[in-house]
């Protein structure tokens, strides 16, 4: 039985990689979906989410199409999963059905993933790893191309490792209806164009696009070669337009727009964050920092109180969500909820079905930084988190994460712009933050689209802008896919763009 069909309650001790606050975060409408109809962009599909009339009609029409084609789809396909694929394919039924059939064939062959010695060794190389979460608890994934040795490592091993990696994230770090997306930092390592593993990157990006639909919130491609022409062509050739719009390019390791939705403590200094660079212990994932929200954010508008959470639970509004046992007060005695419908271990069972038995290394979790708490007293004003900085807290967290793994079964220079054709420039989304010109660039031209007739480069970050901003989207010319995004700062105590 899937998570959407049953009430699932978990304990924080069993899922130490999910912050307690995350259970009290429910996305706002603008975080769930932007736009309408075929041009809409939905980010959250599951849990408490209700679909609009257009989406429900599309699901009904698609169901009829499937029957007409006499296609056989497995029971795994609920409405949320179907809608993910419909959005990814711009609601083109023929293409959607084809990709769904391909995906379910992949599932039958690749799942459950096997945690072999080879997979474990590859994950420990740091070719891809989790490093922190953004201000809406989306995991930040780092893919380091330099460590993807396609010459000496079979592509199948890389894909098998990625399958285990992403399935682990989905089952241990996400919350349906609340946290459903991830952020990607794709580090090209300034590799020369002749050394760039183009075919390997195609396979990896294609794999992610095909099997993990509507999961990407944003991708920051950093340390690009001297020309971004080839990397852009790589991506444009096999990704959907909706996906391409979420990707931006940087010639250095400083993707500044990332920090409009991610606290610097979550990002390693390699990418201009405040966390120490990672040189070892890439696997398993660990808690990097307990500071998630930005200093200018109003936590009252982000989190529910525990009382509100309990009311939703008791009224049955969270029946399709994963709930936290510690936040449910007296649920066993509540006559409004059938205790027999609560499966305290179903999440663990789900893990057991996906992963093979393997004892993994211990990981460390940091003490909660109370400088942030001093500014936003989460415990008192929101009644969100009990005092978790008590004696023995860190050792307990270490033990929890270790036990979880034990129980788991199983820049481009401006001159390079001339290399682009007019057609490419109208759609290519890039970002340039040349160190020599940083002070000359205003906040307004840090976001936008490449204009061939101008010497400045900006990038459209509509998908990535923080909810602390007011976002205005204005049509430009005759190209409906091009948006000029103007970010208006709120009047807050601190600047919205923090260096």
Automatic annotation (TrEMBL):
SMART domains (alphabetical): SEC14
InterPro entries: CRAL-TRIO_dom (IPR001251), CRAL-TRIO_dom_sf (IPR036865), CRAL/TRIO_N_dom_sf (IPR036273)
Domain CRAL-TRIO: 116-279
Top-level lineage group: Eukaryota
Coiled coil: none
Gene3D superfamilies documented for this protein: CRAL-TRIO lipid binding domain
Record's protein name: CRAL TRIO domain protein
Source organism of the structure: Tetrahymena thermophila (strain SB210)
């Amino acid at each position: 039985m899937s998570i959407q069909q049953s009430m699932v309650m978990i304990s924080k001790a069993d899922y130490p990689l999910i912050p307690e606050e995350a259970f009290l975060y429910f996305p706002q409408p603008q975080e769930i979906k932007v736009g309408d109809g075929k041009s809409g962009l939905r980010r959250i599909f599951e849990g408490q989410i209700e679909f609009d009339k257009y989406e429900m009609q599309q699901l009904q029409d698609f169901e009829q199409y499937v029957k007409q084609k006499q296609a056989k789809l497995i029971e795994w396909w609920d409405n949320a999963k179907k809608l993910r694929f419909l959005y990814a394919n711009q609601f083109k039924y023929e293409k959607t059905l084809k990709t769904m059939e391909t995906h379910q064939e992949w599932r039958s062959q690749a799942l459950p993933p096997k945690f072999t010695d080879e997979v474990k060794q590859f994950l420990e190389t740091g070719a891809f790893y989790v490093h922190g979460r953004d201000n809406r608890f989306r995991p930040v994934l780092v893919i380091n191309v330099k460590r993807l040795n396609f010459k000496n490592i079979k592509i199948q091993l890389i894909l098998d490792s990625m399958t285990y990696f992403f399935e682990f994230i989905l089952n241990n770090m996400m919350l349906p209806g609340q946290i459903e997306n991830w952020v990607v930092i794709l580090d090209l390592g300034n590799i020369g164009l002749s050394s760039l593993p183009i075919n390997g990157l195609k396979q990896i990006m294609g794999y992610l696009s095909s099997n993990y639909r509507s999961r990407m919130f944003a991708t920051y491609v950093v340390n690009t070669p001297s020309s971004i022409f080839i990397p852009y062509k790589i991506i444009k050739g096999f990704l959907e337009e909706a996906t391409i719009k979420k990707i931006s390019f940087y010639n250095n390791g400083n993707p500044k727009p990332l920090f409009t939705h991610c606290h610097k403590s979550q990002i390693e200094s390699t990418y201009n964050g405040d966390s120490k660079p990672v040189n070892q212990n890439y696997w398993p994932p660990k808690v990097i920092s307990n500071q998630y929200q930005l200093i200018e954010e109003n936590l009252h508008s982000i989190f529910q109180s525990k009382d509100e959470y309990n009311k939703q639970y008791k009224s049955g509004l969270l029946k399709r969500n994963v709930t936290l046992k510690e936040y449910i007060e007296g649920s066993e005695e509540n006559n409004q909820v059938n205790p027999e419908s609560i499966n305290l271990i179903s999440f663990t069972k789900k893990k057991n079905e996906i992963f093979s038995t393997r004892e993994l290394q211990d990981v460390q979790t940091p003490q909660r930084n109370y400088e942030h708490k001093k500014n936003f007293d989460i415990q008192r004003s929101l009644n969100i988190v009990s005092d978790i900085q008590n004696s023995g807290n860190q050792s307990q967290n270490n033990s929890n994460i270790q036990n979880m793994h034990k129980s788991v079964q199983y820049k481009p220079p401006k001159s390079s712009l001339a290399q682009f054709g007019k057609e490419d420039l109208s759609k290519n989304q890039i970002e340039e933050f040349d160190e020599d010109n940083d002070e000359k660039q205003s906040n307004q031209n840090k976001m936008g689209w490449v204009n061939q007739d101008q010497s400045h480069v900006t990038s459209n970050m509509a998908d990535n802008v923080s909810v602390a901003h007011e976002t205005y989207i204005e049509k430009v010319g005759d190209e409906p896919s091009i948006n000029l995004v103007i970010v208006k700062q709120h009047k807050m105590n601190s600047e919205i763009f923090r260096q």
